[in-house]
Amino acid sequence: MFSIQFIESKYLFENYNVPFYSIILLDDESHFSVNFVKYKTKQKSILFLSPYQNLKWHGSTSSKVKLLQFHGDFYCIEYHKKEVACNGLLFNNIYLQPYISLNNIKFQEIVQLIDKMEIEVEANKRFSKSILKSYLQLILAICSSEKDDQLGNRLSQQTNSNELFIFQELLELHFHKERNSSFYANKLSMSLSSFSKKIKIQFGKTPTQIIQERVILEAKKLLHLTFKTVKEVAIELNFDDEFYFSRYFKKEVGLSPTHFREKVGISVVAK
Fold first, then answer.
1. What integer best gives the mean pLDDT of the chain?
2. Domain 161-264 falls in which CATH fold?
């Protein structure tokens, strides 16, 4: 449900794909891929992963990293979205890089909070669980604030962001039915090659990858935040049948929708 580890990155990231939310403190420069998209971080960065996001380490050398994991049953980010707003910012956002880079003071502030959490885990007293949740919420709130500030600065520096915003809006409207890149290129009055190049430069992945990730993200939400059957989820996402949907989901996530729901659970806010 909740754990803190201090571990060698090369052992952790050989095939990291778990049913937990993960917060990984990276003291050194790091090279890795998340869902097969490559990233390079500066020193003092924090990586955020949602359940069953695939992580692979690309560094030639290994380093010690601090890993904090929690299950959705321990702390529901959807339930606490008003206080923390990390769902869609730190976690579960296909348009943003999955990490933040901090100055040394802010990074050490997070390290100290996790150190306090380790002490509380060892103490294992009557109110330890509540204290751990409070520390976790504070970490998420601080990191959400930092990422929000960094995102605002980045957007103010972009000169070609209008088309990218329109693509995001179009995808949010049409991903249930339209999964062909050419549909979105036509909507933007762009050639497919020009559209694909611009998306790749901005997001580090192709339009097809983004479309697939959006479909899978919605599938995960429906499996975790509703009581709908796999068949009902397949219908809502416009798949021909639940078996095709299950194959599609398993290819992208690594396990079936049913197995995903068993591992991640159904949220306390499920409807």
1. 91
2. Arc Repressor Mutant, subunit A (1.10.10)
